Amino acid sequence: MLALAIGAVLATLAAPAYQRFLLQRGVQAAVDALVGDLRYARSEALMRSARVSVCSSRDGAACLATPDWAAGWIVFADADGDGVVDASDRVLRVQAAPPYLASLSTSALRAAVIYEATGWARAAGRTFTFTPLSSVAGSGVRIVCVSNQGRAGARAPGTSKCS
Hints:
By secondary structure, the chain is of the alpha+beta class. It has one domain: minor pseudopilin epsh fold (3-Layer(bab) Sandwich), CATH 3.55.40. The protein is built from one helix and nine strands, in the order αβββββββββ. The strands form two sheets. A five-stranded antiparallel β-sheet has the order 3-2-1-5-6, with helices on one face. Strand 8 (about 140-145) and strand 9 (about 150-155) form a beta hairpin. The longest helix has about 45 residues, at about 1-50.
């Protein structure tokens, strides 16, 4: 009986830490997915010698008119470079809405990141901010930076700006 009581107390103490761990891992998985897909889009643009875009998408087939990256995103071969999936465009990857996120915002108004055939991103230089479902004083917030050259990378926790 004593062992059960001690086990219950330990489980009660460990539950919040475990929940925080799961939340942090979920946010990090979303960061890794976006960085991976941005890098994939850049490499596909270079390999295909054609434009490839990444945009927010709720259904995995069309871009959203206003960026809502927490809904998910798609990578697609963008023949006309308009950042919108047209009949002649081919969807290459689909990322569903990441769990554990309260929001995924961007510093840019443009809905898509468009990679030219040279690998450079048109109108890049943006920051993506990942905010977990519940955070204490901003802990758990992660950022992804896309440079003007189109390189994507995650920044360490506590970093507030992309350089």
